[in-house]
């Protein structure tokens, strides 16, 4: 009797070293990582319950409270599953903003709730879609792409619709619009709604003060954060139905991150290296200062606007006050193929992106996040953009 063992050769590709070309990432994210963060990320692993790691988690919580401007003790990072790194505004990074988004929504919404979505682009649509999947009634209040929704209209919608939760994306990366947030928190408090803000593409690049804005819950994808002010934990504790997700249960996560002062329970195994990297990123911001970081992004946005103008290019968001300083959308000139131009830039080692959702074909998106918010780098990117447009044009 012969026993035939099927042997399969290992994939040839895996016998070669991986090739990662150098790249300047000026798209909507990820953006380039500072060397100090990359080095910290590759330090040796610790166990996730070792005292030194618990201390690192504590440092991360302090850093998050600092950048979100909140005293709230329920401030922690949500581990996203997925294994890509990103770093955007203020050199922070994490894994998957969707984890922050879903975590917030599964904790804050219950069957029977009413959800008001302020839609200035794709991210409002995504929030509405998630709520739809949860069987929640959704009302959208939208602005034409490139514009924000007037806060008076939002206040009116809150008063009339009386939602349980209001979603606003502070900086929509599909349009480059920064939605003003002032007074929305007051209207929410007055009418018993919770106020949820997506700061994935805006935190550190434009001012944000969670406590002053009366935000109940805010997340920022780059560092996968969920944060909620005092009182909200109580609300979640008093839900009629248990949170449908164990992984994203904010009270479980809060305990794991040491927010509730109780004995720490095992919830999941934190991505150790990611947490190291998050601490390094927060440390970089602490050293620069959060307000200084915001100012640098604003100043360098002016550099970008001036460079665009010099090369005859126009921002998509006409009202300068509504432009997201760390992500600028640029009109694609007539008869120019945006993809051809972006492809030419990529060959030269520089990434910029096309539109997203409804803005595909109409715009390019140039992210100037974290260490990429730098005058010389920005001027070089616009120079290359202009050269690539001219090359495309010469073929017409
Ligand atoms: N919200 C906004 C405003 C975003 O820009 C993004 C990603 N570009 C997300 C949420 C989702 O983040 P992620 O791709 O990390 O899941």
Structural write-up:
Helices cover 37% and strands 14% of the residues. It contains 12 helices and 14 strands. A 7-stranded mixed sheet has the order 2-10-9-8-5-3-4, with helices on both faces. It has a 3-stranded antiparallel sheet with strand order 11-14-13, with helices on one face. It has a two-stranded parallel sheet with strand order 1-12. Helix 11 (338-347) packs across helix 12 (375-394). One of its GO terms (cellular component) is peroxisome. Its cofactor is pyridoxal 5'-phosphate.
Q: What attributes does this structure have?
A:
alpha/beta; Aspartate Aminotransferase, domain 1; Aspartate Aminotransferase, domain 2; 12 helices; 14% strand; globular; binds 4'-deoxy-4'-aminopyridoxal-5'-phosphate
Strand arrangement across the biggest beta sheet = 2-10-9-8-5-3-4
Order of helices and strands: EHHEHEHEHEEEHEEEHHHHEHEEEH
Instruction: Kindly provide the name of the CATH class of the largest domain.
Output: Alpha Beta
Report strand %.
Answer: 5-15%
- Please count the helical segments: 12
CATH architecture descriptor name of the largest domain: 3-Layer(aba) Sandwich
What is the CATH homologous superfamily assignment of the largest domain?
Type I PLP-dependent aspartate aminotransferase-like (Major domain)
Give me the count of strands: 14
Alpha carbon gap, first and last residue: 72 Å
Helix content: 25-40%
Contiguous uncertain segments of 5+ residues: 81-95, 223-230
Small-molecule components bound: 4'-deoxy-4'-aminopyridoxal-5'-phosphate
Mean pLDDT equals 90
Number of domains: 2
CATH fold assignment of the largest domain: Aspartate Aminotransferase, domain 2
Report the major sheet. 7 strands, mixed
The SS-based structural class is: alpha/beta
Backbone CA Rg: 22 Å
Outline: globular
Domain Aminotransferase class V: 99-359
Keywords: Aminotransferase, Pyridoxal phosphate, Transferase
Family: Belongs to the class-V pyridoxal-phosphate-dependent aminotransferase family.
InterPro entries: Aminotrans_V_dom, PyrdxlP-dep_Trfase, PyrdxlP-dep_Trfase_major, PyrdxlP-dep_Trfase_small, SP_NH2Trfase/AEP_transaminase
């Amino acid at each position: 009797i012969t026993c035939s063992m099927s042997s399969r050769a290992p994939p040839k590709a895996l016998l070669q070293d991986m090739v990662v070309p150098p790249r300047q990432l000026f798209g909507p994210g990820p953006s380039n990582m500072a060397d100090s963060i990359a080095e910290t990320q590759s330090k040796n692993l610790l166990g996730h319950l070792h005292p030194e790691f618990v201390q690192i988690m504590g440092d991360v919580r302090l850093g998050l409270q600092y950048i979100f401007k909140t005293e709230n003790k329920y401030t922690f990072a949500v581990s996203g599953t997925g294994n890509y790194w990103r770093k955007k505004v203020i050199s922070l990074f994490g894994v998957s903003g969707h984890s922050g988004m879903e975590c917030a929504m599964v904790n804050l919404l219950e069957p029977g709730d009413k959800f008001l979505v302020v839609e200035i682009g794709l991210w409002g649509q995504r929030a509405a879609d998630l709520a739809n999947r949860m069987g929640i009634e959704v009302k959208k209040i939208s602005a034409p792409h490139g514009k924000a929704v007037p806060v008076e209209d939002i206040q009116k919608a809150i008063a009339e619709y009386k939602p349980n939760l209001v979603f606003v994306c502070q900086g929509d990366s599909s349009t480059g619009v920064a939605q003003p947030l002032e007074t929305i928190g007051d209207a929410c408090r007055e009418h018993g709604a919770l106020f949820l803000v997506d700061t994935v593409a805006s935190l550190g690049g434009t001012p944000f003060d969670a406590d002053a804005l009366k935000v109940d819950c805010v997340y920022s994808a780059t560092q996968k954060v969920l944060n909620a002010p005092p009182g909200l934990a109580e609300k979640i504790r008093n839900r009629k139905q248990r949170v449908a997700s164990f992984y994203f249960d904010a009270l479980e996560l809060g305990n794991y991150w040491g927010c509730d002062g109780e004995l720490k329970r095992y919830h999941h195994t934190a991505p150790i290296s990611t947490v190291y990297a998050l601490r390094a990123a927060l440390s970089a911001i602490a050293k620069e200062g959060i307000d200084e970081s915001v100012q640098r992004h604003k100043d360098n946005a002016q550099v970008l606007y001036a460079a665009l103008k010099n090369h005859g290019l126009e921002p998509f968001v006409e009202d300068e006050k509504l432009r997201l300083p760390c992500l600028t959308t640029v009109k694609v000139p007539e008869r120019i193929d945006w993809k051809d131009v972006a492809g030419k830039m990529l060959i030269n080692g520089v990434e910029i992106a096309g539109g997203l959702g409804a803005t595909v074909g109409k715009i390019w998106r140039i992210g100037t996040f974290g260490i990429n918010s730098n005058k010389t780098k920005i001027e070089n990117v616009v120079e290359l953009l202009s050269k690539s447009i001219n090359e495309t044009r010469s073929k017409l």
